[in-house]
Design brief:
Elements: H1 2-10, H2 15-27, H3 38-57, H4 62-69, E1 75-81, H5 86-99, E2 105-111, H6 116-119, E3 132-137, E4 143-147, H7 152-165, H8 170-183, H9 186-196
Parallel strand pairs: 1-2
Antiparallel strand pairs: 1-3, 3-4
Helix pairs in contact: 2-3, 3-5, 5-9, 7-8
């Protein structure tokens, strides 16, 4: 497992590189991933706008800054993502906000469909759900923990809806987008603090 992670870290992108790629995909009327359908192209365009907004508007409180400054580990957050993924558009900018607060967190992003072997080791209930954050100890090269594809409260909403209705409807997916817009990245930030143990 470690060698696959090391390999993917060398093929990864920084958050800024990832954002540049997504913007370029929009300009090319394209998308990342194996499915290049018109729907996915449209999702990429929508998500580029979402990420631009979150990059500007996600707030990190003084308390969060203080807690992250207490983190003494040396880790890489390796995140599997794709430009078309709605959850990633809301979650990855929040991940970046926390990573930016500490020199001890190295954020790297890789595309899911280009890294199938890695993705298959971090499935969520048997599915290739993204974004998926893999937390790696840089000293031992061991996976300490994972996070994703959604923050805890969104996961609960999804699980409750699935339990009741069997599948996610387009209406529910719209409700989930509203939840993300209201939450403003704060649930993700709290989950990441728990992940860091601070």
């Amino acid at each position: 497992m470690e060698s696959i992670i090391a390999l993917n870290v060398t093929n990864s992108k920084s958050y800024q590189e990832y954002r540049t790629i997504v913007t370029q995909l929009v300009e090319q009327n394209s998308t990342s991933g194996n499915d290049t359908s018109e729907a996915m192209v449209n999702y990429t365009m929508l998500n580029d706008r979402r990420m631009k907004r979150w990059d500007k508007t996600i707030k990190v409180s003084d308390e969060v800054i203080k807690r992250v400054s207490n983190f003494k580990g040396d880790i890489t957050w390796l995140v599997l993502t794709e430009s078309w993924c709605g959850d990633a558009a809301h979650v990855v900018p929040a991940i970046n906000k926390i990573a930016e607060l500490s020199d001890n967190i190295d954020l790297k992003l890789v595309f899911r469909d280009e890294n199938e072997e890695l993705m298959n080791q971090f499935l969520t209930n048997g599915s290739k759900s993204i974004p998926k954050l893999i937390m790696v100890d840089n000293l031992s090269d061991e996976v300490i923990n994972t996070f994703g594809p959604r923050p805890s409260k969104a996961t609960q909403l999804v699980n409750d809806f699935k339990a009741k209705h069997g599948t996610l409807t387009p209406e529910f997916k719209e409700e989930l987008q509203h939840w993300y817009n209201t939450d403003k990245g704060q649930n993700t930030i709290n989950d990441l603090l728990n992940l860091l143990g601070v």
